[in-house]
Predict the structure.
Amino acid sequence: MKNYYNNQPNGYLESIQKGLLAVRSYDLRVSRGIGSRDEQIARLKKELESADAIVVGAGAGLSTAAGLTYSGERFERYFFDFAKRYQIKDIYSGGFYPFPDEETLWAWWARHIYYNRYIDAPKPVYQKLLSLLKDKDYFVITTNVDHQFQRAGFDKKRLFYTQGDYGLFQSVDPTVQETFDNEAWTMRAMEAQGFVLDENGIFKVPENGTISMKLPAELIPTAPNGDPVKMNLRSDDTFVEDSGWHKASAAYSDFLRRHENLHVLYLEIGVGANTPVIIKYPFWQMTRDNRQATYACLNYGEAYCPREIEKQAICLDGDTAEVLEEMTCTIFTTENLDMHTALKPPDLQMKILKKP
């Protein structure tokens, strides 16, 4: 059923091929980067300013840094009833729980979708990242499925969600190569469980704490042709890569091809070890293949690179929110210094001018 797209480049498969090449060609020695944290921050700032193109590869760590956590307070606030009855420990594992019936299954998924797709992240981490990229030639590949890039204002034409979207259903019949928007259904399903809108238009648990863990049978979602549906999330070979997915995959391939011999910054943020062959390993390989390229890794506890590219690499270990906060601090250049200091009293002007 995917022959229709065979004449288009497939950035997803091309990236995986590069990732597999990296696995075969690199040894096991890793580096945490060269230089102090301040020196690496300064290098990253310089790369962001001077690169011909920026390829962002984002994983779950970026959304976690933005406050979209799957356990703890958020989980206990919105899924306390499921936690108590089924001993579910977090939002992620709940997505795999064998619920006793469809009414309960889809009540869970309505909440799962809503609180991870149809509200903004608690912290403005995505907005800070956009402020660094908005005037640059950039493209984003992400394994995240929460739509936060678009909610923050990123250009949809510069985004490739490889693993699906919480906002889409697909038929349980994978030969139906289409996806279906679920926003209207999600809002009805949240209301049916007893959630109420607050003054900001966000669904909350009512004051009496009474919500239902079941949907009415008539609210169980179906495809337009009446087929049962499931989430459009990559978990096996039945994942539907619809026309929008293929368009984004081709756009990613084209972006990489047009910039492959230029000064490119491969900026990896919050990518863990679950699917490194999609982003991390291909970024290593593309950096190795292009002596003008730089690889930057922002990660909490897992900021590293192969020794073979350490001279081209920046590794910043820590909370991504804090790193981006440092990155978005105003950088006074020689060009704008006179205008800025002219607005300050003489004593403050001297402090600014003396700042290293």
In short: The chain has a mean pLDDT of 91. Residues 18 and 286 are 8 Å apart (CA to CA).
